[in-house]
DNA sequence: TTCTTGACTTAGACGGAGTCCAATGTACGA
DNA sequence: TCGTACATTGGACTCCGTCTAAGTCAAGAA
């Protein structure tokens, strides 16, 4: 994750304790935390960090493409540090767990030109739903 | 849409002016209105209808499978009367317009067993993103 | 037709998620 | 070390949605 901090610095961004902590908290595989979960974990390391700063920092990381926003339910958005390898999500309808998955083929290829209504289609997001081993 | 009202009655539900108006407002193709948009249009026909009733009625229609909820952005959910024919959505990143699309093949088929992590996968939702003719 | 009653509707309070702001603090180049 | 532009803070605010208590009414019974 210090890659990320280095990239932030290269963009002229100040390295603050808050940004460092948000980057640390978001490290790992299959990590899909809400902003408030990030805040709670950040507070454990830096008690005075504010909710607004967590939102700001997450927003910055999203805008430079280091983190992706994932909306799997009608609830809070989730933040995903796995931004370098394109992937889709498998969500448990029971407990809400989210796993990264890599379907084969390009999902865009399944949409014929006749079904594009003149749009310039640039991306496809797929959410697979089902029950995880614990919930089934 | 009186099909829908008939089905509601068969389930023992009272036919009220409010439910009738919500069903009427939601009729058509490529209709993906937010609850507040439904409310605004319903008010034009029945000025005293409340927001709570619109939410209640939409929720009932969703629970009997006559309407589907669609979350295309991080904003308000949209309500889609096209519940009988399975389909996916194409969303304009500029203006937010939503079109129904029918990709070929089963989107579930693209997810190999090795990528299912022991889940019982039952559905896949695909959101295609791009720019509509007006926005590009 | 009128009556009765439980289901429906209503307004407004409430809650979660996210944004915005003015005041305060601080990273870092000079 | 200093100055200052940028970052952080807490709290107010907005948007979307849910809940509740009180009033209303659809529809079966008589
Ligand atoms: Mn992911
Ligand atoms: Mn649709
Ligand atoms: Zn589960
Ligand atoms: Zn558009």
From TrEMBL, chains A, B:
The keyword Transcription applies. InterPro entries: FUR, Fur_C, WH-like_DNA-bd_sf, WH_DNA-bd_sf. One of its GO terms (molecular function) is DNA-binding transcription factor activity. SUPFAM superfamilies: Winged helix' DNA-binding domain (SSF46785). Keywords: DNA-binding, Metal-binding, Repressor, Transcription, Transcription regulation, Zinc. Binds 1 zinc ion per subunit. Zn(2+) binds at residues 92, 95, 132, 135. Its cofactor is Zn(2+). GO terms for biological process: negative regulation of DNA-templated transcription; regulation of secondary metabolite biosynthetic process. Signal peptide: none annotated. CDD domains: Fur_like. Belongs to the Fur family. This is Fur family transcriptional regulator, ferric uptake regulator. It comes from Actinacidiphila bryophytorum.
């Amino acid at each position: 994750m210090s890659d990320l901090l280095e990239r932030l610095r290269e963009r002229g961004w100040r390295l603050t304790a808050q940004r460092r902590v948000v980057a640390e908290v978001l490290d790992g595989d299959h990590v899909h935390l809400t902003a408030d979960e990030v805040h709670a974990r950040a507070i454990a390391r830096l008690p005075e960090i504010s909710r607004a700063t967590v939102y700001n920092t997450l927003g910055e990381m999203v805008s430079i493409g280091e983190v992706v926003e994932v909306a799997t339910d009608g609830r809070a958005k989730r933040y995903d540090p796995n931004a370098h390898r394109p992937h889709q999500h498998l969500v448990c309808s029971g407990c809400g767990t989210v796993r990264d998955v890599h379907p084969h083929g390009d999902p865009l290829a399944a949409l014929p030109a006749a079904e594009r209504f003149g749009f310039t289609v640039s991306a496809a997001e797929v959410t697979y739903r089902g029950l995880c081993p614990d919930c089934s």
